[in-house]
């Protein structure tokens, strides 16, 4: 990591639905150059400031196939992971349920059922091929972020009724106030709502 310490980091503005970039496919990353390293550092900086546990490039308007995640608890040491060109190569039949949120759909949380375990192949920031198996919060977080890279949002995994409701709310906000794009500043994590299902915060 030492080689990247000199990179200046910038918190980037986060796009909010119904921004059409959040519905588009991303392009494979082919250049593992200084520009990519800066992008990765900016994505981490933006994710931590939000605060979030994951961020995909389209959420800051960059249509490239990469995301960053860090599911370590707030008080523990940060465990940052940058996944470049990630692909899910296997997922379990067993599922798990988490309450998800999304930095691009502020103030909305809903339970989502996803495969409990996944295997993911990806490239690290140096371009080296890697593979990981993930379960628990990490498995859900990575699936949420990879969805973003394919223009899919977590509300696509909930009922149409609920999805239409939240979508219409943001279409209305756009018409009334313009794009809801925001630049995060450090704030407190969302409070536990006491329903017994772990709230992941925003991804
Ligand atoms: Zn998200």
Automatic annotation (TrEMBL):
CDD domains: Pep_deformylase. Binds 1 Fe(2+) ion. One of its GO terms (biological process) is translation. Fe cation binds at residues 102, 144, 148. InterPro entries: Peptide_deformylase, Peptide_deformylase_sf. Residues 179-203 are annotated as: Disordered. Its EC number is 3.5.1.88. Signal peptide: none annotated. GO terms for molecular function: metal ion binding; peptide deformylase activity. It is an enzyme of class 3 (hydrolase). It catalyses: N-terminal N-formyl-L-methionyl-[peptide] + H2O = N-terminal L-methionyl-[peptide] + formate. Keywords: Hydrolase, Iron, Metal-binding, Protein biosynthesis. Its cofactor is Fe(2+). Pfam families: Pep_deformylase. The active site is at residue 145. The keyword Metal-binding applies. Belongs to the polypeptide deformylase family. NCBIfam families: pept_deformyl, PRK00150.1-3. Removes the formyl group from the N-terminal Met of newly synthesized proteins. Requires at least a dipeptide for an efficient rate of reaction. N-terminal L-methionine is a prerequisite for activity but the enzyme has broad specificity at other positions. This is Peptide deformylase. It comes from Terrihabitans soli.
């Amino acid at each position: 990591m030492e080689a990247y310490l000199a990179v200046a980091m910038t918190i980037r503005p986060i796009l909010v639905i119904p921004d059409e970039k959040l519905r588009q496919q991303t392009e494979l990353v082919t250049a593992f150059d200084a520009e990519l390293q800066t992008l990765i550092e900016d994505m981490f900086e933006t994710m931590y400031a939000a605060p979030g546990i994951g961020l995909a490039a389209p959420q800051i308007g960059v249509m490239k196939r990469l995301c960053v995640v860090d599911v370590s608890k707030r008080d523990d040491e940060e465990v940052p992971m940058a996944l470049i060109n990630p692909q899910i190569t296997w997922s379990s039949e067993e599922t798990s349920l988490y309450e998800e949120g999304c930095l691009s759909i502020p103030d909305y949380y809903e339970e989502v059922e996803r495969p409990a375990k996944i295997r993911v192949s990806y490239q690290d920031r140096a371009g080296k091929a890697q593979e990981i198996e993930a379960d628990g919060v990490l498995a859900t977080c990575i699936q949420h972020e990879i969805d973003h890279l394919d223009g899919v949002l977590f509300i696509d995994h909930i009922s149409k009724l609920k999805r239409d409701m939240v979508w219409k709310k943001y279409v209305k906000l756009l018409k009334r106030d313009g794009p809801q794009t925001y630049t995060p500043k450090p704030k407190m994590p969302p409070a536990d709502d006491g329903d017994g299902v772990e709230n992941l915060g925003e991804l």
